[in-house]
Amino acid sequence: MKPDAYLKLYPGDWLKDTLHLDATATGAYFLLILAHRGKPGVPSSDSALKVIARVRDQDWMRVKGEIKPFFTEKDGLWVNKRCLEDWKRDCEDYQYQLDQAARARTSKKGHAKVSTVLTPTLDPKLALTLAPTLKPMLQSESESESESESESLKANRAAVALAEVMERCQGVLGLDEMKARHKHWLQRAESNLGKLERVVADTEAAAKEGRIKTTPARYAEDAWKRFAD
User: With the CA atoms of 102, 104, 109 and 111 taken in that order, what torsion angle do they form, in degrees rounded to the nearest 10?
Assistant: First the structure.
């Protein structure tokens, strides 16, 4: 899905940052974020901001004072740093999905039994959701295909394995780390899945034993450098 067709919302982050706002200011801030999506900012003039935020004239100065700290003013625009970062990351994710689809189209087509409900190559994020369902399906399929395995089935197995490692990364490294650097860890998983599994296992053990002096993510980075390919 193209990035301009949706907006990711993390309720915990949103509520933490907006608990001090009343309903009018909250709605105004949200509408400005929607207008900001995919653009360098929103016009900083009061007349434009009032229209976008749908705030009455008599309420505007109060509401403006409450929501202005979420923005910086630059070149006649109100700019929200988080909005720009999210847009950049979502565009990168979309391009990655396009690249994955292009590679799948050029790969050898397989016709495993599961292909009637799955694409030849599963997107890792989709596989993360479907992993609990896919595993017994793939195990059953392997029993009936003991001598040869289709390319499609191999791709689906790889996607499930990748998704499970990424899920474990989130549990060990933390949700904030995976939200900020999901693509970074996904690329490492794709380049050397076995090594990342060892890194995550070592980081998890170090955390349980109290050996981590910084953060699990930094420990994992150091472990990646230490471990041989």
Answer: -140
Check residue 114 and give its pLDDT: 43
Round to whole Å and give the CA distance between 126 and 118: 10
Residue 202 structure tokens: 């070592």
Judge if pTM exceeds 0.70: no
Q: What angle do CA 186, 120, 3 make, to 5 degrees?
A: 50
Low-confidence residues of the chain, pLDDT below 50?
111-122, 147
Which CATH number belongs to the domain containing residue 21 in this structure?
A: 1.10.10
Q: How would you classify the pairing of strands 42-43 and 72-74? A: unpaired
- pLDDT tens string 121-165: 445 555 555 555 555 555 555 555 554 556 656 666 777 777 788
Token duo for residue 197? 């599994």
Into how many domains does the chain fold? 2
If asked whether residues 131 and 68 sit together in one domain, one would say no
Phi, psi of 87, rounded to the nearest 5 degrees: -65, -45
Q: Which domain holds residue 200?
A: 110-226
What residue has token string 């959701």?
Answer: 129
Residue 74 and residue 114 in one domain: no
In a domain, 172, yes or no: yes
Residue with tokens 């780390």: 177
pLDDT, tens digit (0-9, with 9 covering 90-100), for 45-67: 999 999 999 999 999 999 999 99
